[in-house]
Amino acid sequence: MSTTTSPRQAPPSRPTVPTRPTVLRRRLRALAAAPAYPWITGAVLTVGAAAELVVFPGSVTNASAILVSTASLMWRRAFPPVALVTVAAGLVSFGADTSLSIAVMTSGLIGCYVLGRHRVLHPALLVAGGTLGALATNLWHILSWARDDRLPDVPALGNAGSLGLFAEAFGLCAVILGAVSMGDAVRAREETRRERALAQAQLIAMERRQAAQAERAAIARELHDIVAHSVSMIAVQAESATYTTPGLTPGAREGFQQIAGTARDSMAELRRLLGVLRTPQHEETAATAPQPTLDRLDELLAQHRAVGGSAELRITGERVPLPAAWELSAYRIVQESLTNARKHAPGADTVVELGYRADRLTLRVADDGPGPPLPGGSAGGHGLTGMRERAALVGGSLTAGAGTSGGFTVEAELPW
Q1: Distances (CA, A) of 35 to 30, 72, 78
Q2: Which of 9, 19, 109, 284 is found 20 to 30 A from 374 (Cα to Cα)?
Q3: How far apart, in whole angstroms, are the C-alpha atoms of residue 136 and residue 186?
Q4: Other C-beta atoms within 10 Å of 107: how many?
C-alpha cells in the first residue's frame, strides 16, 4: 500500500497499461483455443511432411508412417488418445529410416505434449512406454548398422564403446520426458485455476448472501425504529382517550377502542414481519455491530488478495474523518467494485484510489481485466445500481464503464 500526504508529492497515476508480451500472450491463447486450430496446424504439418518427402524420398513404410503421424494430429482435440498413434507412427518412421525428419520430430513432440496435457495415461506409463519404443527403435538401428558394409565396424553389444550406440535412445527419452512433463504441468495449472475460480465463485455467493442478510436486518431495524414507535403511540393514546376525554358517547368510546385494537394488531403483524426479515445470526449483533468505515479498507483489500486478486490502495490529499454516511457509502462502493472484479475479471490487477479534496471525496477503482461485457451480453446483478444509489444518497455521482487503457473503471465523487 502506498500512501501520500499531498497531491503535489504523488499525483494520481494512470491505470496500468498491459505490456506487449501480455497482449501477445492473450492473443496466442485465443488462437490456440479456436476450434479450427488443431485442424489447421495438423494440415499444415502434413503438407510440410509431404513436401519434405518429395525433396528427401524414402521407403513406402517411412512415407506412410510420416503422413499418419502428422495427419493424426488434426483429431488431437476431439479425441486426445489419437496422440498414441501419432507417437507410435513417428517411431515407426524413424525405425524405417535412420534419419529423423523435421515433420516427425514436430509431430512427436506435439503428440507427447497432448498425451501429458490430457493425461490419456499416467505420466509414468507414458514415459515408460516412450522409453521402450525409443529403445526398440535404437536396437533396430544397431542391427541395421551391423549389416551395412558401408559403415565401419560396429562394436558388439557389451564391448567397449557399445554404450555410445544408445545415444539415440537417450536423446529420445529426454525429449519424451520433457514433452510429457510440460503437458502434465499445463494440465495441473489449469486445474488449479478452475479450483480457484470455483473458490472465488463460492466466496462471491457467500458475500452476496451475507449482504442480503445484512439488508434484511437493516430493513428490520428501520421498520422498528420508524413504524413501531408511531404505531405504539397510536395504541396508547387511543386507549387512554377513552378514560381522559370527558363526555364521550358510547359510540365514540367504542371507536377509540377499535383504533387501539387495530394498532395492537398492526404491532403484532409488524413483529411477525421483523421475524421473517431478521435472520438468527443477525438478531443479536445487528443492533450493536458498528458500520464499516474507510479505516477498514486495508482489511477489505487483504480479503481480496487472499482469494488470488491483486489490489493496491493509493491515497492523495490529507486524510480526514468524514461523516458516517460518507464513510459508509465510500466503503460499500469499494467493496462492491472489488466483488465485481473478482467475479468478472479474476486475477486482474486492481487499483483503489482515494482523493481527499477541500469539498469532496473522489473515489476510483480500476482493473486491467477484459472490461465491460459485449453489447447484448448479460452483466447480471444490481451492483452498479446499488453503488449509484449509495453515491446519490450523499449528493454525489458515480460512473462506471471501460477504462481508457482497457479494463473496467468505477469513479465516484462524494461532495460534503
Answers
A1: 10, 16, 10
A2: 19
A3: 29
A4: 30
Decide if 309 contacts 347 (C-beta within 8 A). yes
> 319-348, pLDDT tens digit by residue?
888 888 888 889 989 988 988 888 888 888
Q: What is the mean pLDDT of residues 263-273?
A: 72
**pTM (two decimals):** 0.51
Q: Answer whether residue 125 shows pLDDT above 50.
A: yes
C-alpha closest to that of 111 among 60, 77, 64: 77
Helix residue ranges, H only, 1-118: 20-32, 37-55, 60-71, 82-96, 102-117
Computed on alpha carbons and rounded to an integer, the radius of gyration of the chain in Å comes to 36
Sequence-separated (6 or more) residues with CB below 8 Å from residue 394: 325, 326, 329, 414, 415, 416
Distance from the Cα of residue 214 to its chain's centroid: 26
Cα Dmax for the chain: 139
Q: How many other β-carbons are positioned within 10 Å of the β-carbon of residue 167?
A: 10
Determine the Cα–Cα distance for residues 112 and 84; give it in Å rounded to an integer.
8
